[in-house]
Amino acid sequence: MITQKLLKDEQLLDVAFRKKVITEITAGENVTRKNLALRKQEIYKDQVRKWVIEALSKEFSPETVKQMENRAANISVLKKIVNKLAKSYNNGVDRTIPKVLDSADEVLPVVKTIPLDDTAPASPEAQAVGGPAQAPGDAAVPAPKASPSPKAPVAQAPAKTAPIAKADTAQPGVTAPTLDGTDPMTDLLNAEEQLGDGTDSIDPETLAIQEWAKVTKLDSAMKKVDRYTELHRNCTLQVIPEVVTRESEGDAKKYCLKLRVLAPHSYDVIEDVNDNEVPRVYILTDFVERNQLSERFITDSATQDGRSNGITPLFSKGNGKDEIIADGKDDKGTNVRTFIWWNEKFHFTTDKNGEIITALSPSDNLNPIQMLPFVNFALDQDGSFWAEGGDDLVEGAILTNVLITDMLTIANTQGWGQLVLTGKKDSIPKKIVGGPHNAFIFTYDEGDPEPKATYATANAPIEVWMRMIEQYVALLLSTNDLSVSTVSAKLDVATFPSGIAQVIDQSESTGSVEDKQQMYREKEPEVFTVIQAWGNLLREKDSLAEKLDELPELEDTCVHLKFNSAKPVVSEKEKLETLKVRKDLGISTMIDLIKLDNSELTDKEAEFKALELAAEKLNAELQARKRMAEMGLNPQMGPDGKPQHVPPGSAGTNASGENNSGEINT
């Protein structure tokens, strides 16, 4: 007798158990679930047109549907809304490995100086060179009063120099570059060498996480996970080795790691008997039954009143054969269908009868990493594995396109003028051929009514349809946490083609993404744990592809995620004004301002940019003072021989050792 539920892993080795599972996979209930999931996927992937025609065929006669097919709308409303809602990864994410500093790693303030020659007080811009790299928006670290102590040595200014003191928070093991002022270009090259590639200030565990995430394209995969979770409420991320053909020779295979985001129609699950929300076994197989869905629409008969129950043969894309050339998904698995089984202990591939295919399975049928190579993502499971919800967006996308199709059909049928001929029956020709090069000639007898030719036109209520579509889309958005209260655009004849997209684009999200982001914070460590397991296994076997073999080993997978918030859209002028205000208030260092101006720069790149700007400014000042010296003028005196005014806050010191801002230089 076959146990109905999976109580222990060893049941997977029973061919009768596997056969029963395969029967359930290919049975009506599960096929219906997959067809509905596939329907969502197709509409999201810009294939809404066939579902619009399928809906119309339930209302109109085949002749009317055939006329409407040419004007069937195919606007990706669903994709637009889903991508608008799935915004967790839109602005990027910072991944770090949290560290707890002990007393030996205490961060101490230090003072950096940039000594100049006796004729060149430094510019204010140069003060930013030694400043710390900070995240945009962080306040600058104030300069503390440095006092002599073993932990905080005082940097004394050399004689005949104008030191620029800048206190900041030093990172352990990082030495900031300095300029000696004699040759700015040489200083710049030396600084670039000292700064390195920007990775010396990142701890090795965090650096490893970031590099593996970059090579495996984790950000792209997680953005797709976010969208699929919003669309389906269920999706899974599979981490699986994939052979790199160009690096493999014979049996010496080289593998990269592939992150596959699977929609619900792509996999089946045996849930945990104690917690139905947790997957215990994954079974992967091609959805062969999808072709039966298209055939059902094709062969449906008409109803008694002449209406069709299905759509035309236009949408049967596959030919039922998985060909040698690149073929579509519709035909996958039609030649030889396989079922790939995964759980924490076992892994193998079977045929449709549940028999293990030895050539496609490990020799011992064991899972090589002894953990599921899948990470499950789900919303609102409510005690069952397959979550429910999200149908309003799918049905709303179809109805929106149906309404647009109706409107286009009305405009077409009522927009043409209908030729009307009146007169005595015998005086009207049986066949009329119109056109700019033809004329109507009617003959009639005296006393007969005069034949007339006119065009009858109708005023199609297009404006009414536009208002209705606009209101429906607005209602659909507002019930999905997208407020349209700020949308001022109105749909009219001129703006209608872009109006739907504009309504969605300008809608503001009123829902919180914190719950979803918390789910990703909990799930991404699981992703890295699977990546770590595969990486270690393949490295031991010397089977890692070159780009992965160069990466450091993952030692810690407890990654912390910081999701970047959306930035308001501002003009270049507004951005520059904001930067100027932050500089004038002294709440941002030069490095802060550079990163605010170009957020793609790393900390070290921003530091080097600050050095570059300071070197250019310093070089200009040195050249100016050199010319003044050649003219016999004191650089500290104006051309009229009077003491030159130095603006407050600029660099330089007076005879008493005070800097120009009135503070004692330490």
Structure description:
With 666 residues, the protein is α+β, with helices and mostly antiparallel strands. Among the domains are: 419-456, no CATH class; 572-631, no CATH class. It is 35% helix and 11% strand. The chain is built from 17 helices and 15 strands. The strands form six sheets. The protein has a four-stranded antiparallel beta sheet with strand order 6-7-8-9, with no helix packed on it. A three-stranded antiparallel beta sheet has the order 5-4-10. A hairpin with a 7-residue loop joins strand 6 and strand 7. Helix 5 packs parallel to helix 12 (496-506), helix 11 (462-478) runs parallel beside helix 12 (496-506) and helix 15 (572-585) runs antiparallel to helix 16 (590-597). The longest helix is centred in the last third of the chain and has 28 residues, at 603-630. The chain is flat, with a radius of gyration of 36 Å.
Approximately how much beta-strand content do the residues carry? 5-15%
Helix content: 25-40%
Shape: flat
How far do the termini sit from each other? 87 Å
The radius of gyration is 36 Å
What is the residue-averaged pLDDT? Answer: 77
Q: How are the strands ordered across the major sheet?
A: 6-7-8-9
The DSSP helix count reads 17
Oligomer description: single chain
Count the beta strands: 15
Q: Describe the biggest sheet?
A: 4 strands, antiparallel
Stretches where pLDDT is under 50 for at least 5 consecutive residues are 103-179, 292-302, 308-314, 493-497, 648-666
Structural class: alpha+beta
